[in-house]
Amino acid sequence: EVLTEDPETAFCTLANREDLNPEEGSIYHCLYQFTRNEKLTETNKLLCDVCTQRHYGPKNNIKSERYVYTNAKKQMLISLAPLVLTLHLKRFQQAGFNLRKVNRHIKFPEVIDLAPFCTVKCKNVAEGNTKVLYSLYGVVEHSGTMRSGHYTAYAKMRSMNNHLSDFVLQGPSPQALETEPVKGQWFHISDTHVQAVPAAKVLSSQAYLLFYERLL
């Protein structure tokens, strides 16, 4: 589906992403890089149907080699903020013909704001809100190599989020968003072994998957 957007707002976000200045090696830096504005030029030019029809007339009379390609901008932004945000970190890199495990620690917060990565017309954000906050409740960690290893998890035991239930039933609320993480106790789970751990241990883990629930 091709939509015509106002060029003044097509690349605008709910919060100014340029104010972020994200720290390298953080989840904010990963999101910033993933949603950066890209220029499509030279061999990456965009095939433009509108430009082609403007130049040659109706498309059914145009041979494929005569299509018009044009410079363009591309940006991936969030158009629908999820109730549960799952972030999957790429933990491998190509090394020649082999894949290598990436063991670098990526910093991630207990509360994350998605607003700098959401389109200004994000569908399920109440008008006037400039924050889209999420609270961390689960982490999956992998130890080992690309050939073998072990998965463990951190999970937060917490009370039911009634605001989240209301959101599902009634939609977004214009009320002020919470800024604190959902209170609860963290546990480390490894096979049948379960142990209570402090939040600091969770935040120092080498996360592979991050699970956040929306704060309302």
Automatic annotation (TrEMBL):
**Which one of the record's GO molecular function terms can you name?**
cysteine-type deubiquitinase activity
Kindly state which keywords UniProt assigns to this record, in alphabetical order: Hydrolase
The answer on whether this UniProt entry bears the keyword Hydrolase reads yes
Note the InterPro entries from the entry: Papain-like_cys_pep_sf (IPR038765), Peptidase_C19 (IPR050164), Peptidase_C19_UCH (IPR001394), USP (IPR028889), USP_CS (IPR018200)
Q: By its UniProt entry, which Gene3D superfamilies does this protein fall under? A: Cysteine proteinases
One of the protein's GO biological processes: protein deubiquitination
Q: Record's Gene Ontology CC terms?
A: cytosol; nucleus
CDD domains per the UniProt record, alphabetical: Peptidase_C19K (cd02667)
Protein name per the record: UBP16 hydrolase
Source organism per entry reads: Rissa tridactyla (Black-legged kittiwake)
**Domain USP, first and last residues per copy:** 1-215
